[in-house]
Amino acid sequence: QVQLVESGGGLVQPGGSLRLSCAVSGSIFSIYTMGWYRQAPGKQRELVAAITSGGSTNHADSVTGRFTISRDNAKNAVYLQMNSLKPEDTAVYYCNAVREKMRIGVRFDYWGQGTQVTVSS
Question: pLDDT by residue (tens digit) across 101-114?
Answer without folding.
Answer: 889 999 999 999 99
